Amino acid sequence: MPAAPGTSKFQIELRRHLRGQNISDNLVHLICEIAEASKYVINAVRTGDLGVAGTSNLYGEEQLALDVLSDRIMRKRLIHSGVVCNIASEEMDEIYQAQASADGLYSVAYDPLDGSSLVDVNLAVGTIVSIYEGCDLLQPGRNQVAAMYILYGPRVSLVYTVGDGVHEFTMNNLMEFTLTRENIRMQEEGNIYAPGGLRNKYNDGDEQFIRHLEAKGCKLRYSGGFVPDINQVLMKGKGIFMYPALKGSPNGKLRVLFELNPMAFIIEHAGGSASNGNIPILDIVPESLDQRAPIYIGCKADVKAATDFLAEHK
Ligand code: AHG
Ligand code: MN
Ligand code: MN
Ligand code: MN
C-alpha cells in the first residue's frame, strides 16, 4: 500500500520493521516524531550558542543554552504529536501535562541533550527517551513500552527497543534514518570498562572491582558522555559502564527517569543487565522525578561481579 503523503522514509522503514508486532499507530507516530525532533537538536548542537542559559535545573546544574533549546525542541514536538499525556524532562522542574488522560496516550521522560557540556570540546552527545503507556511517569522502568536514544557522533544513530530486540537506524546523507543493525546482542562478559565519577571518592567495593577488571586485562574506555559510552558497550557487545555511589554522594549522579531506566531497558533487551548495586535498575520504584541511583550496566557477568564485590566489601 503506498505510504500516506508526508510519511517519512523512517516511518516507512519503522512500520516495516515493526510489522507483525502489536505496536499501536500512536506509538509508531511518537517514535517518528522524536526522530524528527532530533534533526533540529542536531542543528542546535552543530551551530547553536555554546554559552550558559543563566538558569539551573532541578539538580542545581547550570543549564547551557543548548540544554534549554534542545529541551524546547523536544517538548514542542511531543506536545504537537497529539499522542502524549505527560512529559518529564531532565531540564524541567515538574511534569508538563500536554493532554488530559485518555486512552491511547503515552507519557515521555527524556534527557534532551545528555553530555551537553561536551559539545564545546566536540565530543559525542545524545538524546535519551523513555516511553510509558498512560499518564504515570513514576513507574518502575520495567513498565516502559519503548526506550530510545539518538547519538550525535561522527554518524547520527537512533537505537530503540519496543521490547522485542534492540535495533539501530543510522542517518544517511539525506538526513533519513535507515535500518543498519537488527537484534543487537551483548556477550556474557566484556573487555572494556567505563568508570564514571571521581576515583578518589570510590568506596572500597568499587575500587576492588576496578582492580579485578584491570587484572583481567579490561581497557578503560570513558568519554564522559553517557550515550556514547553506553553505545560503545552495546555495539561492541562487551563491557560495563558504571557510575557508582561516591563518598558524599550515596546515589551517584545519574537520573533514574531520564538516563538509567531507558538505557537499562535497552541493555536488558539486548541480553545485558543493569543494577544499582543491589537490585535491577528497572525494578526501582521512583519516588520523585529527580531520583538518582548508582548504576552498573553492560555484560551480565561483569554486572554480577560488581554486585558481588559490593556485597563482599560492605
Ligand atoms: P547531562 O549532560 O545530561 O547532565 O549528563 C551528563 C552525565 C552523563 O552524560 C555522564 O555519564 C556523566 O554526566 C559524566 O559525569 P562525570 O563528568 O562526573 O564523569
Ligand atoms: Mn545536565
Ligand atoms: Mn544526562
Ligand atoms: Mn542532559
Automatic annotation (TrEMBL):
UniProt: Mg(2+) 2 binding residues: 111, 114, 259
Alphabetized PROSITE patterns for the sequence: FBPASE
Chief location category: cytoplasm
Subcellular location as annotated: Cytoplasm
Name of the protein this chain belongs to: Fructose-1,6-bisphosphatase class 1
EC number: 3.1.3.11
Subunit structure: Homotetramer.
Natural source organism: Geomonas propionica
Domain Fructose-1-6-bisphosphatase class 1 C-terminal: 186-309
UniProt KW Nucleus keyword: no
Cofactor: Mg(2+)
PANTHER family the record matches: FRUCTOSE-1,6-BISPHOSPHATASE-RELATED, SEDOHEPTULOSE-1,7-BISPHOSPHATASE, CHLOROPLASTIC
Phylogenetic placement of the source organism: Bacteria, Pseudomonadati, Thermodesulfobacteriota, Desulfuromonadia, Geobacterales
Family: Belongs to the FBPase class 1 family.
